Amino acid sequence: MILTPRGARDAASNLLRLALYGHVADLRPMPAEPIGDGHGPAVCRYRPPEGVVPAGPPVLFVPPPGMPARCYDLRRGCSLAEHVVRAGRLSYLLDHGPAEDRDRVRGFAGWVRDVLPAAVRAVSRDAGGQPVQLVGWCLGGIVALLAAAADPGLPIASVTAIAAPVDAHAAPPAHRVRLPAGVGRYVLRPCKMLVNLDNADLLEQIEAVDHFASLEIAYPGHAVRRIYRSLSRDGGLMGGDVEIGGRRVDLGRVGVPVLAIAGRGDAFAPARAVRPLGRLLGGAPEVRFEIASGGHLGVLTGPEARTTTWRHLDRWLDEGTVRHGIRAQRTALTV
Predict the structure, then answer these.
(1) 95 Cβ contact partners less than 8 Å away, ≥ 6 residues apart
(2) CATH 3.40.50.1820 fits 28-173+221-324, yes or no
(3) Are 219 and 67 in contact (CB under 8 A)?
(4) Using the 8-state DSSP alphabet, how is residue 186 labeled?
């Protein structure tokens, strides 16, 4: 590795931060307060910056069932939640709770019928009755679409589905995509950090992804596998509908605008696994499909997502504000 004088100074600065603090990235979660009475789903409202009064339809981040909700808030400076909050949007997070609370990780039936609808209603109430703009990554996007289809009366303004593979057969099994943990952590990671000591942004991203992976290990993986089996069975969602709790839910009943974003380098949910949404969502007034930089997690919250995915989302949410008004939420700054 040959460094320029500036690169050498940056590498020395990063090494000093590692020596003093043991890390480079700022992994503090964005400040948030719970809403509701504690009896419904765990929904938190992100605290807006001082002096900012959020306006427009609220945004609710929907994590994939069985995975940590920190996917939207990976690290400061490259956090989608931070970006949306600082843009002046009232923002919320649905968190299914700690890993040991396994009863809440119930696959499609529980999330589509109970958890997400209750969260949407709670957010709408907290935001003065406005409809909610859902943003879901991976299976979170699929659950958001199914909830909108199962109950068209829910106060939903729009759905954004990021890296949501509706065609399970177009995406390879997860074990073909992931490297064994030991290889990635003990061989590739140190080498990559050593070669990029002068690149603070990359070092921070490596640390943040490692932190997310450590959280993910604690979650029950059988829930995600069960969902994917449901998607694959009898053609799954590619047939246009899926059985949820004993009744058929037709994606053609989604009646709100949908933004679908696929990652150009996503091996888990490639564009060909996301693109069929345009055909399946026949009842939606608009289905917009975009391809952005990044892999499965990177398309959501990688360094390049700041100038690709986030810009697509900003335009989409701005259009939602135009459609539904810009009045400020009365309860935005109350706890």
Answers:
(1) 42, 43, 44, 63, 69
(2) yes
(3) yes
(4) I
- The strand pair at 59-62 and 132-137 is best described as parallel
Do the beta carbons of residue 76 and residue 110 sit within 8 Å?
no
DSSP letter for each residue of 272-304: HHHTTHHHH-TTSS-EEEEEESS-TTHHHHSGG
> Which has the minimum average pLDDT: 141-150, 158-167, 234-243, 326-335?
326-335
Query: Could you write out the three-class secondary structure of 42-100?
Result: CEEEECCCCCCCCECCCEEEECCCCCCHHHHCCCCCCCHHHHHHHCCCCEEEECCCCCC
Distances (CA, A) of 19 to 3, 109, 330: 20, 48, 46
Q: Which DSSP letter does residue 163 get?
A: S
User: With the CA atoms of 261, 112, 268 and 28 taken in that order, what torsion angle do they form, in degrees rounded to the nearest 10?
Assistant: 80
- Mean per-residue pLDDT for 254-263? 97
Residue type at 265? Answer: G
End-to-end, the C-alpha distance of the chain in Å comes to: 51
Residues near 36 by beta carbon (within 8 Å), at least 6 away in sequence: 43, 122, 126
Task: Identify the three-state secondary structure at position 246.
Answer: coil
How far is residue 1's CA from residue 46's CA, in Å, rounded to a whole number?
A: 42
The sign one gets for the Cα dihedral 171, 302, 62, 100 is: positive
Residue 5 has pLDDT above 80, yes or no: no
Q: Would you say 284 and 156 are in contact if contact means Cβ atoms under 8 Å apart?
A: no
pTM: 0.83
326 or 75, greater pLDDT = 75
Q: Could you count the other beta carbons within 10 Å of the beta carbon of residue 76?
A: 15
Tokens of residue 313, six digits:
């989302």
Residue 226: its pLDDT value, please? 64
Strands 287-292, 132-137: pairing is unpaired
Residue 271 and residue 260 in contact, taking contact as beta carbons nearer than 8 Å: no
